[in-house]
Amino acid sequence: MSQNENLFIQCDQQPPLQFFPTSELEFFAKAVNTSISFERDDTGKITAMTLSQADVMSLRQQPDKQIRAERQE
């Protein structure tokens, strides 16, 4: 969700978490060790979002539109 050009992510009943840009497609949260990156296709459309938390797990949308957790090595 975007509020006044800022990026916020909210899960369930938790308060929104603000993310700050490190580039046009990469963001990080100051409050927790979490980062988000987006991928674009050849037309510039956002096609994927990867959320990584504490370098342990990432959440990534798969081609079947499901979100799966993957352990980082």
Query: Helical region count?
Result: 0
What's the shape?
A: globular
Please give the order of strands in the largest beta sheet: 1-2-3-4-5-6-7-8
Q: How many strands in all?
A: 8
Oligomer state of the chains in this structure = single chain
The low-confidence parts are: none
Category by helix and strand content: mainly beta
Radius of gyration: 13 Å
Strand content: over 45%
The secondary-structure element order is EEEEEEEE
Rounded average pLDDT: 75
Helix fraction, binned, reads under 10%
How would you characterize the largest beta sheet?
8 strands, antiparallel
Termini Cα gap: 30 Å
Task: Please outline the helices and strands.
Blueprint: E1 2-3, E2 6-9, E3 17-21, E4 26-29, E5 34-40, E6 46-53, E7 57-61, E8 67-71
Antiparallel strand pairs: 1-2, 2-3, 3-4, 4-5, 5-6, 6-7, 7-8
Structure description:
This protein has 73 residues and is an all-beta fold. The chain is 0% helix and 55% strand. The chain has no helices and eight strands. The chain has an eight-stranded antiparallel sheet with strand order 1-2-3-4-5-6-7-8, with no helix packed on it. The termini are far apart.
